[in-house]
Specification:
Elements: H1 30-43, H2 50-66, H3 70-74, E1 81-82, E2 90-93, E3 107-110, H4 115-126, E4 143-147, E5 153-155, H5 158-172
Antiparallel strand pairs: 1-2, 2-3, 4-5
Helix pairs in contact: 1-5, 2-4, 2-5
């Protein structure tokens, strides 16, 4: 746009940690993200374990559509969905990323980019298959297949979602990108 060729998109001040050996991460294109989720959505029809696959798909869609971090998505409760706030509804992110030393920051995230439809499908059609009680205070939005000692269903872990995203990227994107 400016007529200048940029050698590296990351300046020296904002380079990833690890010094000169830090790995440069370039975000995927819109086409790659669309291809990933289209392939993942087709996989839902024939996967061996539907509920965890649908949970992983929903979590990654939410992260992509509204800009959640993995650890923020894992800590969402069912009650954090505020369908009636704003034009599209909002998510109450109680455990957001904080500045150094100040702790996590709360924020309200609008359910834009079709995130409300993805979330509504998951809550209405999939969430109940995990076997948890939706009236229980603190019921997690993204559930694990494991149970807590009190019999409630545990939250999904961040490593589970990271591994699911890596598997989906390997399966549905070309080897040149992954």
């Amino acid at each position: 746009m400016t007529g200048r060729v940029v050698e590296c998109p990351i300046d020296e001040m904002n380079r990833p940690r690890g010094g000169p050996l830090g790995k440069l991460r370039i975000p995927p294109t819109v086409e790659q993200v669309s291809r990933l989720f289209a392939g993942w959505q087709q996989e839902l029809a024939s996967c061996r374990k539907f509920t965890p696959t649908a949970r992983n798909y929903t979590a990654c869609r939410l992260m992509s559509e509204v800009g959640l971090r993995v650890n923020e998505a894992c800590k969402l409760d069912l009650a954090d969905i505020k369908w009636d706030l704003g034009r599209f509804g909002k998510l109450h992110v109680r455990h957001g990323k904080g500045a150094r030393g100040s702790g996590p920051r709360e924020r309200m995230v609008p359910l834009i980019n079709n995130a409300a439809a993805t979330l509504r499908w998951f809550v209405e059609d999939v969430w109940g298959q995990f076997g948890d009680d939706h009236t229980r205070p603190g019921a997690a939005l993204l559930l694990s297949e494991r149970k807590n000692t009190d019999g409630s269903v545990a939250r999904v872990g961040d490593e589970t979602l990271r591994a699911a995203l890596a598997r989906a990227a390997a399966a549905h994107l070309s080897k040149a990108w992954t």
